[in-house]
């Protein structure tokens, strides 16, 4: 029996008969071709902060130039085996809820419903003036008309739909169609707070769960770590599946240092009554 087999059996032993809350991070989406920030071998990233974005027109120009190129690729990403297995577990009544730190919307595209998108959704855009929410696809079409041929530029793909480019000072940024205000992706930037209602709903899910399963998150930021701490305080089992160490390894009932897709698929196969097809 392999180490992976033993890990799956151990997970099944901890979780069998319980309904779980799942918290997912960037390691879930890497199998869909979306890079993460902190996985093993990931280069050091310096993502734009909220303060930089709202503080200067140059910051917004640089962000939207890079994001315009990145979105043309990111929107083609498809759900992977982890997303589809989680959908199957939800259909079979195994889950009490799902919180994701990802902004790619792949859980919803896989058919998962009632997802708490903790950090927002990259496929939506919010106006910083009138707060109207609009479609990222519509903005992409507008930016394409303003900057013909720009999205064909080549650059290193970075997390969250970003692409590393050189000079971006010639890029033309689109304004809100309703009030001409500045547009921002409807996501929580570094240095920005998660909306309080979203946090409250996530804590409510922790209170309802019999166990917490963390998939593909290093839990380096407090926005996700606080839910693991709340689960630990409730003394419910905590299972963490992640390549590399996490900030909550000492709180875990069981830590599995392996990929999410294969571990979750093996776990689902060990649990009685879980359907094997979506």
Describe the structure.
The protein is an alpha/beta fold. It has a single domain, classed as Rossmann fold. Helices cover 36% and strands 17% of the residues. The protein has nine helices and eleven strands. The chain has a six-stranded parallel β-sheet, with helices on both faces. A three-stranded antiparallel β-sheet has the order 5-4-8. Strand 2, helix 5 and strand 3 form a beta-alpha-beta unit. The longest helix has 18 residues. The model has no long low-confidence stretch (mean pLDDT 89).
Main β-sheet, in a few words? 6 strands, parallel
Note the quaternary state here.
Answer: single chain
Q: What is the strand content?
A: 15-25%
Major beta sheet, strand line-up: 3-2-1-9-10-11
Radius of gyration: 20 Å
Kindly report the CATH topology.
Rossmann fold
Low-confidence stretches are none
Instruction: Work out the helix count.
Output: 9
CATH A-level architecture: 3-Layer(aba) Sandwich
Number of domains: 1
Beta strands, count:
11
CATH class reads Alpha Beta
SSE-based structural type: alpha/beta
Query: What is the CATH homology-level superfamily?
Result: TPP-binding domain
